[in-house]
């Protein structure tokens, strides 16, 4: 009688893994594995000098000298067709605005966060030392005829102005590069606002003998009206590029949100607390959220750190990703004063910025130099097309100066977008900072339709 050879099990239970302590599970992940505090030993991430300064763990006397020296050492050769700001001009731009009541410095950071994923942070100088910040999931819109010309812009913490100089990377925060930087100009929100309707507004129509309000004062007034119109004079963005930001009444509130509840990655059966959008807790069942116990293959992941479960909405819903980008800033160990004031240490929130308020952001096509035209399609439908102003000087409604529209552009994400200061990609910044094994969050795609 032939005896059958027993089949070897290809799966190991979690109990067996824990008991045997398999060394094969020790691997480089991002963020690095951490352990609970035992006998005073804590597994901490070893950060580079720039990451430590960015996190506030290390202080430097001269932020401009520190970051300019770091950026100068990381310069890449000029690539044809890729906009680049001269290093000396970049320093002069910052020196011209930092510490000044008339400063109007802005920066657009590409931030590839391991949890929130790739997003773009628009920061606008609001006083001599600080800037308000908006997290924008897919970058600034660059097609006047796009089906998705609008974006969600979520308020985050007020930053120190020297944060405009940062290019760094770490396992816990991902990579950050300067997508564009320059100066902004606050425009009247509408032609009526610039005319009779604001004749009595002392901030927009100063009395005789009173100095004209600077850009910080205009930004503060527009921010309080919840309607901001900005013209960005940068290096990568085209000439005349104008944005419109609008806060709806549904999103308006005057108090900072409460501390978020602890987000557990793995949940057992039963009832758990879920953080609502308004800061209140709601109860929900977790029986269908518990991850099944599987073999070693279950440890593979597409995001960093791994999370259970990934739903379809996590990858496709813009609102959900905007919440994730804003929530990633607020950790459980964050200082209570930072949360209460919505400003990082050293920054001043004198403009009334509220954490996680959602604004609508879009490109102002008229003030950017486009003209609306109607055309009949082959199917017989009349459609609206936004075109650039003609070379003969035909003016679009509301267009001032030399704004003539711009060629369509698309924000391509971490794999294609270069730093306007150093010319680096996100992967090159990770390599320069010694970050090995970083696994970015997936499911991000550029808006091309």
Count of helical regions: 9
Helix content bin: 10-25%
Q: What is the N-to-C succession of helices and strands?
A: HHHHEEEEEEEHEEEEHHHEEEH
Mean pLDDT across the residues is 78
Sheet with the most strands? 8 strands, antiparallel, barrel
Low-confidence runs of at least 5 consecutive residues: 8-29, 33-43, 195-204, 266-316, 328-332, 396-401
Arrangement of strands in the largest sheet = 1-2-3-4-12-9-8-7
β-strand number: 14
Question: Gap between N and C termini, in Å?
Answer: 69 Å
- Which overall shape is indicated by the principal axes computed on the Cα atoms? globular
Query: Rounded to an integer, what's the Rg over CA atoms?
Result: 25 Å
| SS class | alpha+beta
Question: So what's the oligomer here?
Answer: single chain
Strand composition percent: 15-25%
Protein name: DNA ligase D 3'-phosphoesterase domain-containing protein
Region (Disordered): 190-215, 248-324
Biased composition (Basic and acidic residues): 248-258
Organism: Lithohypha guttulata
């Amino acid at each position: 009688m032939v005896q059958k050879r027993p089949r070897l099990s290809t799966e190991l239970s979690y109990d067996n893994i824990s008991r045997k302590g398999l060394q094969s599970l020790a691997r480089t992940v991002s963020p690095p594995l951490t352990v609970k505090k035992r006998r005073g030993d804590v597994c901490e991430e070893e950060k580079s000098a720039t990451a430590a300064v960015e996190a506030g763990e290390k202080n430097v006397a001269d932020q401009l000298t520190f970051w300019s020296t770091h950026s100068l050492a990381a310069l890449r050769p000029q690539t044809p067709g890729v906009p680049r700001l001269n290093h000396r001009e970049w320093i002069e731009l910052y020196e011209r605005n930092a510490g000044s009541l008339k400063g109007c410095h802005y920066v657009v950071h590409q931030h590839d966060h391991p949890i929130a994923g790739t997003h773009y942070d628009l920061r606008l100088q609001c006083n001599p030392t600080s800037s308000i910040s908006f997290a924008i999931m897919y970058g600034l819109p660059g097609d006047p005829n796009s089906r998705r010309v609008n974006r969600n812009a979520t308020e985050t913490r007020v930053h120190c102005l020297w944060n405009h100089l940062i290019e760094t990377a770490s396992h816990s925060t991902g990579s950050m590069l300067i997508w564009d930087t320059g100066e902004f100009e606050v425009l009247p929100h509408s032609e009526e606002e610039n005319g009779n309707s604001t004749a009595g507004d002392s901030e927009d129509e100063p009395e005789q003998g009173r100095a004209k309000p600077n850009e910080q004062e205009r930004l503060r007034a527009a921010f309080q009206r919840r309607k901001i119109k900005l013209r960005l004079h940068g290096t990568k963005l085209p000439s005349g590029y104008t944005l419109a930001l609008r806060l709806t009444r549904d999103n308006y509130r005057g108090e900072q949100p409460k501390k978020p509840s602890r987000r557990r990655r793995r949940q057992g059966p039963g009832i758990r607390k879920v953080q609502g959008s308004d800061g209140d807790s709601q109860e929900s069942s977790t029986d269908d959220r518990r991850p099944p116990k599987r073999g070693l293959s279950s440890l593979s992941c597409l995001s960093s750190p791994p999370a259970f479960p990934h739903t379809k909405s996590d990858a496709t819903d813009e609102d959900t990703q905007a919440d994730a980008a804003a929530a990633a800033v607020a950790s459980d160990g964050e200082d209570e004063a930072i949360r209460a004031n919505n400003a990082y240490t050293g920054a001043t929130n004198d403009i009334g910025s509220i954490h996680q308020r959602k604004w609508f952001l879009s490109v102002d096509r008229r003030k950017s130099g486009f003209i609306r035209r109607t055309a009949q399609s082959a199917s017989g439908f009349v459609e609206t097309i936004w075109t650039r102003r003609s070379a003969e000087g035909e003016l679009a409604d509301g267009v001032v100066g030399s704004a003539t529209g711009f060629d369509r552009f698309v924000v391509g994400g971490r794999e294609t977008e270069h730093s306007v200061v150093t010319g680096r990609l996100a992967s090159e910044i990770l390599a320069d900072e010694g970050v090995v094994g970083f696994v970015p969050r997936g499911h991000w795609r550029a808006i091309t339709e």
